[in-house]
Each structure stands twice: as C-alpha cells, then as structure tokens.
Specification:
6-stranded mixed beta sheet; Butyryl-CoA Dehydrogenase, subunit A, domain 2; about 10% strand; about 50% helix; alpha+beta
C-alpha cells in the first residue's frame, strides 16, 4: 500500500510495539484475533459493504439495514456464533450500521433470560434466538422516559378470564422511541403498570405479540409505526406503539421475580430494582461503545492532522503539519488518553455487571445498589466525555470535518444519542448522587463502605492542601488520586450541606433535593471522574508490556489525570486545596506530556486497529491518501451522475437567460 510520506515518517520513527498495545486495547491477544476474524468475515461479504453509507436516503438506508439484518442472522447461524457472547457482538460491531433486528439480541433476549420463568423461557427464548419471532423492548413513552415509575401504560388483571388487559390510556402513554418497534418486531416486552384487585403494583414486564407471524400485519388493538426521521440512527426503526385493550394470558407477565396467581394475588420481587437488569446491562455495554467511537474519531483526526499542512510557521518556510501546532495537540492528544481511560473503565464495568448478575441469580442482592449507581453514573460520564471529544475531533479537522466524507458526523450522531437513551444523563447523575447522599449521610467508616466510595468515610484522612511540591510529584498516582478524592469529597459535602440548609429553612425533602440538585450533579461527575481514573491507574499497574509501551501508557494515564485537573481547575482550587502555583505546575506538565505523546500519536491511534472499512472515513485512511480519495468520493455522489441536473430544466432555466447581442 502506498502511504503518505508524513504517516510513513511517523510510523518508522516510533519505538512502540503497536501490536502489543493493540492486545492491551482489546483485552488480550486472543481477543484481538477474534475481533480481526469477525471483521474479515464482515468486510469480505458484499452485503455488508458500506461504500455508499453516506449517500443513502432514509428509506434506502432502512432497506439496506434490513437486508443486512437478514444476512447477519444467516451468517451467525452458519458460523454458529448466535449464542457466542464475544464473537457475535464483535461481528455486529464490524457491520457498523444500525441493524433493527439487533434489539432482539441486545434487549429482548436478555430481558427474557433475566426476567422470565423457566417455563416462559422454554416458550419464547429459543424462538427468539432462532428469529422465528423478533422482539423489541417497549419501555419509554411519549410523556415519560427516564422516570420509569411514571409510565402510564397499564396491565389490568382479570381473574375471571385469567388475562391482562394491556392499554395505553392517554396519548402520552404511547410507547415512543423503542428500536425495532416500527416495522421490524413481531413481539415486544412491554413495560406497564400491573393492576390487580384494584391495586397498582408499579411497573412490570409483559410479553405482547404485535404483528401476525403470517403476514406481519398489526394485530387487533395494536397501533404501531415509525416515529419519523431523527438526527441519526436512520435504520434503527424507532417506533411508536399504542395498545387499545389488548388481551394477553396471565402467563405473559414475566414472572421470574414478581408473580401473579390465578386469583390475582400478587407476590412482589425481592428487590424493587431487580427488574432493571436489562437497562444496567446496556449501560455497562455503553462504555465499550463510547471508547470505541471516541477512539475512531481521534484516529481520523490524528491521521488527518499529520497529513494536512496549514500555514508556514516562519515566512518563506514550509507549511506545518497541523498536529505540530500545540493548540491542535491540546485538542487531540487528551482524546487519545480519554479513549484509553474509557476502555479500561469499560472492562471494570462489564466485570461488575457479570459478577453482580451471578450473585443475583444465587439470591444475593447486596451488590445491586452498587451496580445501579455505578452503571448510571459511568454511562452518563462516558457518553458525555465521548460526545464532547468527538466534537473536538470534528472541529480540529476544520471544514473537512463537516463533510460526511470525514466519518466524524456519523460517529457524532451515534454518540450524542447515547446521552439521552437508556436514561438521560442528568437524571442518571442524580441517581448516582442519591447513592452518594445515602452513604455520606450515614457517616460510616471507610471499612464499612463499599470500596468505590470508601473516601466518603468519616475517618477518611482528608488533606487540606495538595502535597505535590515538585512537578515530578504530579506523576505520582497516589497524589493524583488524592486530588480527585478531595474534589469528590468536597463536592459531596457541599451538596449535602446545601441540602441540609434547605431542610433547616423548612423545605421538605424533595424540594431540598431539587434546590441542591446542580451541586449533586457536580458531585456525581466528580465521583465518576475519580472512578475512571482509579480504573485507568489499576490498568497501568497490572498490564504487562514492554518498557516503551509502559512509558507511553503511563503518560496517557497522567494526561487523563492532569488534563482533568486543568479543565476542572476551579474545583481543585476551591478551599485552597491547590494553589495557583500548583495549578500552573499542573498545566506545564500537561504541555510537557503533549510533547511525549505527540511523538507516538500515530502509532497510538494505529494501535486501536480500526480498519478503513470500519472508519468509513476519507480523512482517516491508514495510507493517508486523503485528497485523491476525497475527490473520488465526491464523484460517487448520486447527483453527479447528471452533467445537467433535472433541476435545471424544471426550475433554474426559468431564471438563466442567454446573453444578449450587446453582451
């Protein structure tokens, strides 16, 4: 492959073992091999080709994604990976477009596995895995989203008929947004309020058939369709659903935890949040999603910033590579660090989910509050960080970043959507904040608290000032963590004191919480930032790698820590914890780290191992042949098949006049 000389120079001068870093990124050599195998299978299949990705109309995109969905099912069956928890998700990732049918795998089946009884699994689980039925997860309503307890759809049990009456009583109770709901799913897990013997027992899960398995027509009482064009996710088939007194058997309530007897007697689950398992699983997965997409964006922007030259630094001199401008480095290089940080956090989050899920299945619910608070906060933190980071990458590419050819708008619209689905971020931060409030108010010792919040212990040795006296000390992980703990403790304490003051003025609990909510969000963010830093530091300390790789990996971790202090400087300066001199010292260390990371910037993004077929970016090509392919890409635009566009004959011709003889 011919390669742009700028990229060639960057790669040849590197001292890194790029493949080893790829193994670190993937989670081991075994995982790299599997990922590459899945990518090769996808990229060699013409049905999955994405060459026209940015030229499709909405309807064309939906039809292509449906075609890919069917091919995806066929290939999974042929490869026998439909139940493989590693290969199947990596296969989907490589397809790199919205598969409406994938909701069946990511939400419908996991809900059945977690919420259905053994008898119900025998009835529905295998057909769903074979795609004889295709499921959606219908929770969000037009009028209610993250506030799940406020959902309006009802499931009223009649012991005479042993049926539930599924009903959308208002316009706002209509299910709105669920993927695959519009024109794909045959069934849905519908989240509705259980009413039996005249009492409302809150939300529960019900299996409702939506469409005929013979001709796909909606069943009586089922009004279903697409919600219309969105900012992105064109092929996601997000739909609406309104149920008008649809009758389902008693056995269609998922009854692994909560149960309804024939006579309508209700047995509640062991924990009220045990039904949130699917949401927490998706939130845990989102950390993989955000780190993956941010790393793609910074790969594109970094490679382009090496190839692109702009303005001589000195009169008469050559134009500089824009990555040699410190301002460009300050935009992009922290995003490389952020990508690695979120990736390391994603592994911790998924392990926490798997461990807690296993404990729940054994009847131990003690870790559920930790999982709920952690998954909520890190989902919000990661999607916010990735959204901001991808936009920084887009802006760093100048005008070219606005073109779909860059691949950056595609990444951006996918990530910004994640800030509101599976829980709007502010609401999720507040869920984490309630966890912090509860534990802080108990004034327990460190030993009595979960490890992730031990710093809130009443006996925690909170330092009044930062102990870093020399620049080198800022690279000490203990000093970094101490600074972030101090920030988090101070933020939680301030929010708590603000709330207590409101209560003392006579406010009731909900109003006092609302009055202090901005500070509680700030506290939750500080807690999440500390958590991710801790996970990154743990990864640095435990991963085995060659000395050069270890040096750059530690530099990335230091960048994540110190850049975070600079960008949130006010919170570290408050109460005099850090002096202005220390903050200047931190800022200078960030500038010094830019020099270190700049030397290895291209190999570091190469280590993400994103193939061109996955990046779908002219600017981010591995070979750096940007300008030739940018022109070739433009020629593919459907409008350019006309030398004279029909719009001229229909409209423009009315204005343009041949020149007169005088002209």
């Amino acid at each position: 492959m011919a390669m742009a000389k700028e990229l060639k120079v960057e790669r040849e001068r590197s001292t890194l073992d790029v493949l080893e870093l790829t193994h670190v990124w993937d989670g081991g050599e075994f995982m790299t091999d599997i990922r590459r195998e899945m990518e090769s299978l996808v990229f060699s299949d013409p049905v999955f080709n994405n060459d026209d990705l940015y030229f499709r109309s909405n309807e064309e995109a939906f039809m292509r994604d449906m075609e890919k969905s069917v091919r995806y099912v066929q290939r999974c069956q042929e490869l026998n990976i439909q139940d493989d928890p590693i290969k199947r998700p990596l296969f989907v990732r490589a397809i790199n477009t919205e598969l409406p049918i994938e909701i069946n795998e990511t939400m419908f089946i996991p809900t059945l596995e977690g919420q259905a009884s053994n008898e119900q699994k025998e009835r529905w689980l295998e057909p769903a895995k074979r795609h004889e039925i295709i499921g959606a997860y219908a929770q969000t309503e037009m009028g209610h989203g993250t506030f799940i307890r406020g959902l309006e759809t009802t499931a009223t049990y009649d012991p005479k008929t042993q049926q539930f009456d599924m009903h959308s009583p208002t316009l706002t109770s209509m299910k709105w947004w669920p993927g695959a709901l519009g024109h794909t799913a045959t069934h849905a897990v519908v989240v509705a309020r259980l009413i039996t013997k005249g009492k409302d027992h809150g939300i529960h899960h019900f299996l409702v058939q939506l469409r005929s398995l013979h001709d796909h027509k909606p069943l009586p009482g089922v009004h279903v369709g697409d919600i219309g064009t969105k900012f992105g996710y064109v092929g996601g088939d997000n739909g609406f659903l309104r149920l008008t007194h649809v009758k389902i058997p008693r056995e269609n309530m998922l009854m692994r935890h909560a149960k309804i007897a024939v006579d309508g007697t209700y047995t509640k689950p062991a924990h009220e949040k045990i039904s949130y398992g699917t949401m927490m699983m998706v939130r845990a997965f989102l950390l993989f999603f955000t780190s993956d997409h941010l790393s793609r964006a910074v790969t594109i922007a970094t490679r382009y910033s090496v190839v692109r030259r702009q303005t001589p630094s000195k009169p008469g001199g050559p134009e500089m590579q824009i990555l040699d401008y410190v301002t460009q480095q300050y935009k992009l290089l922290p995003q490389i660090a952020n990508s690695y940080a979120l990736k390391m956090a994603s592994r911790f989050m998924m392990q926490l989910y798997v461990t807690t899920k296993g404990e729940i299945q054994e009847g131990d619910l003690s870790s559920l509050p930790v999982l709920h608070a952690t998954s909520a906060g890190l989902k919000a933190f990661s999607t916010e960080m990735a959204s901001q980071g991808i936009e920084v990458c887009r802006l760093s590419c100048g005008g070219m970043g606005y073109s779909l050819a860059s691949g950056l708008p595609f990444l951006y619209v996918r990530i910004v959507a994640a800030q509101t689905y599976e829980g709007e971020n502010t609401v999720l931060y507040l869920q984490t904040a309630r966890y912090l409030h509860k534990l802080y108010s108990q004034r327990l010792s460190q030993a009595q608290l979960p490890s992730d919040v031990a710093y809130l212990g009443a006996d925690y040795p909170c330092h009044t000032t930062c102990s870093a006296n020399t620049p080198y000390q800022l690279f000490d992980a203990h000093i970094q963590l101490e600074a972030y703990r101090q920030r988090a403790v101070r933020s939680v304490s301030k929010a708590y004191r603000m709330m207590e003051a409101a209560l003392a003025r006579g406010m009731d609990q909900p109003d006092a919480w609302n009055a202090a909510s901005v500070e509680w969000v700030r506290a939750a963010k500080a807690h999440c930032h500390l958590s991710v830093l801790q996970m990154f530091i743990n990864a640095v300390q435990t991963h085995e790698m060659c000395p050069n790789n270890r040096h750059i990996f530690k530099a990335l971790c230091d960048m994540f820590a110190l850049h975070g202090i600079v960008e949130n400087g006010r919170e570290f300066l408050q109460d005099g914890y850090m002096s202005s001199e220390q903050m200047d010292m931190v800022r200078q260390q960030v500038y010094d780290l830019l020099k270190v990371i700049r030397k290895e910037a291209v190999p570091l993004v190469d280590a993400f191992d994103h193939r061109d077929e996955l990046l779908c970016s002219v600017l981010g090509r591995y070979d750096g042949d940007v300008y030739n392919h940018l022109y070739q890409w433009a020629l593919k635009c459907p409008r350019n098949k006309y030398e004279v566009h029909p719009a001229y004959h229909k409209h423009l011709k009315k204005l343009i006049k041949p020149p007169s003889a005088k002209l």
